[in-house]
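Team,

Forwarding the record for the chain on the shared tracking sheet. I've put the sequence and predicted structure together so nobody has to dig through attachments.
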Amino acid sequence: MGMKIIKDTIVITVLNDQQLVKIDRLNAPYVLIKAFHSSQKFIERNPDTSILIELKVHLNYEFERLILCFSNSIEVIKPRKLRTRMVKKLKIAISNYIQF
């Protein structure tokens, strides 16, 4: 864990956080060719041809936005903290559409 001071803000950073995500079969070829991040590592291909990848990135707003862009075709496996945050955000998104 490190600490950075950016202007007047102190940011605590955890280096090399492991993020494990599952990409559906339709988007798997795209993600294998055009990686989300340079740390991306292919882990396995599942029987349904979806894939499991590992990323070593910080948990931050930008990474969450990337996950949300693929919301219907990606599943966060770990860490549990990120998975829980994605569930909360997706529930809010759903409620925005069913309030008619």
